[in-house]
Design goal:
Helices cover about 85% and strands about 0% of the residues. It has a domain of about 80 residues. With about 180 residues, it is an all-alpha fold.
Length: about 180
């Protein structure tokens, strides 16, 4: 259970008999001072939370007229709470700036890494494309040379076949000439 200023105000202590103790009035006065300072700190905390929420939501923060003297009072009474608050806000702003800078640095690093990886992938793809084009060109040259060989073989074969058939026809004409004359008689 959280302790509140009202808990301090309403707290009752038992009086001790036959023993030394503190003066109850002095303890009560001190506790009253503690409660006042505590309430001021709680009010200031609530005000700072509201300002922070407004700042985070993008709204302009304007201190209400009634709260302005209350905010100035701690500064006049020694400045410790106001200085602490300013220090906390400064620390929060510095942490925010560091996180933003770190985020930007990580973003820039990720972009640079992605660009480097994209360049490498592109270079690899271009290299593979050149290699595949060269391989296909070599294969095409081999096929064209085989086609040329087949054309030469076809011409040679036709020439040889024609010569063979013409030779056979001559032989047939020569053999069939005298035998054909004899059978005609």
């Amino acid at each position: 259970m959280a302790l509140t200023p009202d808990d301090v105000v309403t707290k009752q202590f038992q009086h001790v008999r036959f023993k030394d103790g503190f003066d109850p009035d002095e303890v009560d006065d001190f506790l009253d001072e503690v409660v006042l300072e505590w309430r001021k700190a709680l009010d200031e905390n609530a005000e700072l939370k509201a300002k922070l929420a407004a700042y985070e939501s993008g709204e302009k923060v304007a201190a209400p007229v009634a709260e302005a003297p209350a905010a100035a009072a701690p500064a006049a009474e020694g400045g410790a709470p106001a200085a602490a608050t300013a220090g906390i806000i400064e620390l929060a702003q510095r942490l925010h700036d560091e996180h933003v800078a770190e985020g930007k640095s990580q973003r820039d690093q990720l972009i640079a890494d992605a660009k480097a990886q994209a360049s490498k992938i592109l270079a690899d793809a271009e290299q593979k494309s050149r290699e595949e084009t060269a391989r296909l060109e070599r294969e095409r040259n081999v096929l064209e040379s085989k086609i040329a060989e087949l054309h030469d073989f076809e011409r040679s074969y036709r020439t040889q076949l024609r010569s063979y058939i013409e030779g056979q026809l001559r032989d047939l004409d020569e053999k069939g000439g005298p035998a054909g004359d004899a059978s005609a008689q």
